Amino acid sequence: MTESALRQRHIILGVTGGIAAYKSADLVRRLREAGAEVRVVMTRAATEFVTPLTFQAVSGQPVHTSLLDPEAEAAMGHIALARWADAVLVAPASADVLARLAHGQANDLLTTLCLATEAPLAVAPAMNRVMWLHPAVRDNVSLLERRGVAVFGPAVGDQACGEQGAGRMLEPLELVRHVGGLFGPRPLQGRRVVVTAGPTREALDPVRFISNRSSGRMGFALAAAARDAGADVELVSGPVALETPPGVRRTDVETAGEMHDAVQALLDGCDLFIGCAAVADYRPAQVASGKIKKREQQMQVELERNPDILASVAAASPRPFTVGFAAETEDLQGHAEDKRRRKGLDLIAGNLVGQPDSGFDVDSNRLWLRWQDGDCWLGPASKAQVADELIAFVADRMSKE
Ligand code: C5P
After folding, report:
1. Catalytic site includes residue 161
2. Is the pTM higher than 0.90?
3. Second-level CATH architecture of 2-181
4. Fewer C-beta within 10 Å: the chain N or C terminus?
């Protein structure tokens, strides 16, 4: 797919100052192998890591480094470059360039070009994991995402600074696949997708509730990935502190009962259902009308079962392609497969919770996928990347049905 998607496409590769810039030379080669024409724009800091000559050699084109060089502007100025581009990919994208792009600065050739182009813009961040987690960087990235900038990665793993975590630039071949995705067929085009995300809250009294640690991040990433794949996406979310991915419709609920009803109301015409929410299995049998007072040394709360949303979707007829999640603390594969069978799912995605690189409230995830006649692992990688891969996988299986 990528091959044809990139054939004769004009890609501007913006290289900024980071050690991952050395991988960008290989990226140029890979993009060209996939059929793209590539022109490289480097920031001044990038030239401290890799020389323009390297990029000139691998791209077969002069490298652009300066906005104010009359000679270079005469050959192909920033406006001409901006018009030439079918897509702009900034890889590696440093924390600095993310900040400058987020704030619409135009203080060098690359940032000026990014403002002057109508082509889609993508960034492949690469930086130390602490920098990546800094609230300033987080805010800049979410601002860019809201504006429709595609953020590829970063990956989780060893870093040049000797640390381990999220911040590695994606490998060149992964980036080529993502850039191809900017042009390629959108595998869920015309499909309706419903995703549940986040925890539910089950009230004990007007001020207290039973809930869990789900942050909603995986479900939100899945909704964004399904949207990127061309789907019409409905997100049914429990209480979370996340912004709705642009272009996704969201229904907020609190209890499992409300989530069940919201999902049922959206099932008509639904092609794919992904139950990613951490739905409370039980709710208090009685909800006190006033705040429960402390009197006895011990108190008992009677719980009753909530409806199983996922199982009820899987049992509907006609039914969407149905994907469930299994968050486990032990025997991941045994429990996940048991759930897949019991609930009658097309696919289950199991993950271990409470791990440094997977589970609740962390930015990365590792999933074990199990379907009727096979299984595979995805990640560890950022939840956004794992979501992209899961959606691509599901779209492929749906197309074979
Ligand atoms: O059975 P368990 O809760 O571990 O299964 C997890 C999967 O089932 C998740 O996909 C979750 O969204 C879904 N689920 C549900 N309704 C429930 C409980 C779980 O849809 N009441």
Report:
1. yes
2. no
3. 3-Layer(aba) Sandwich (3.40)
4. C
